[in-house]
Specification:
Layout (H helix, E strand, L loop, with lengths): L3 E6 L8 H11 L3 E6 L1 E5 L4 E6 L2 H14 L4 E4 L5 H11 L7 E3 L16 H9 L5 E2 L3 H6 L9 H12 L5 E5 L10 E8 L2 E8 L9 H13 L4 H17 L17 H9 L1
Parallel strand pairs: 1-2, 1-5, 5-6, 6-7, 7-8
Antiparallel strand pairs: 3-4, 8-9, 9-10
Helix pairs in contact: 1-7, 2-3, 3-4, 7-8
């Protein structure tokens, strides 16, 4: 049977990030996508204009409605926007401890715009991280969660991994895609958990089309987790994102940071026919 994967995140009317990216990724990787919306966001490839968080009780009602009716194989959490929403999400998911959870602690958009209220940071750290199977912070988020300086080298990334792990998630994937190029010519991530530390390296794709990369990666991990062990899921998801970045030049979306090509494999098969 096809696995059902739920995203809990905000919207993106330009289609490259948030629930749009998540649902495209779930579908591209052979799973059935579902979505509970936390916030309605006015954004495009250039930046975030504004966002309206939904009532936490309504967010909880969406999540409960899915679990009451559908067998959920995995959950991906993205933008939660407020402390109240983070607490509501944690309360709902705590009733389903058997369901794996990938938490992308979304705090800042690629444009630099904040995607949460200040009180949400502590709620993400204290309520959501401890129930997550895997967290996928980028370098800026890795500095905020344990309140440390941003790790801007490979050695600094390695050093912060145990502190991120102590926050309570089973696994940590620290993303180094925005390391200074002097630190690494490749895209370097680290996976830290039960098996120790694994460095994941892929070619750095030269493109401006990086809108929604964090959403896409975490959604891909959640989709792969429905049929693979977590370390394999992370490796496969990174390979999928690398290819989606490499093929993104075939899209013509917006004037800023464009989206990745979520359906690169499927559309290639259409073209071949």
């Amino acid at each position: 049977m096809i696995a059902n994967v739920l995203t809990i995140a905000g919207t993106d009317p330009s289609g490259g990030a948030g629930i749009s990216a998540d649902l495209k990724t779930f579908s591209a990787l052979g799973t059935y996508g579902m979505a509970a919306i936390t916030a309605v966001v006015a954004q495009n490839t250039v930046g975030v204009r504004s966002f309206q968080p939904l009532d936490p009780a309504f967010v909880a009602d969406q999540i409960d409605a899915v679990f009451d009716d559908v067998t959920v194989s995995a959950v991906k959490i993205g933008m939660v926007a407020t402390a109240g929403i983070a607490e509501a999400v944690a309360s709902c998911l705590s009733k389903h401890p058997e369901c794996p959870v990938v938490l992308d602690p979304v705090m800042v958009a690629k444009s630099g715009d904040l995607l949460l209220k200040q009180d949400a940071i502590a709620a993400i750290r204290d309520k959501l991280v401890p129930i997550a199977t895997l967290i996928t912070p980028n370098l800026s988020e890795a500095a905020v969660l344990p309140k440390k300086e941003r790790p801007d080298s490979i050695d600094a990334m390695k050093a912060v991994l145990p502190e991120l792990h102590r926050l309570g998630a089973e696994w940590v994937m620290l993303k180094g895609g925005n390391l200074p190029e002097a630190a690494s010519e490749n895209s370097i991530d680290f996976l830290y958990g039960k098996g120790g530390t694994e460095m994941l390296s892929a070619p750095r794709i030269r493109t401006q089309n990086i809108h929604g990369t964090g959403c896409t990666l975490s959604a891909a991990i959640a989709a792969y987790m429905t049929r693979l062990p977590l370390p394999d899921s992370v490796r496969e998801a990174k390979a999928y994102l690398t290819e989606a970045l490499a093929e993104s030049g075939k899209l013509d979306v917006g004037h800023g940071h464009g989206p990745v090509h979520h359906f690169h494999n499927l559309w290639k098969s259409f073209a071949a026919r």
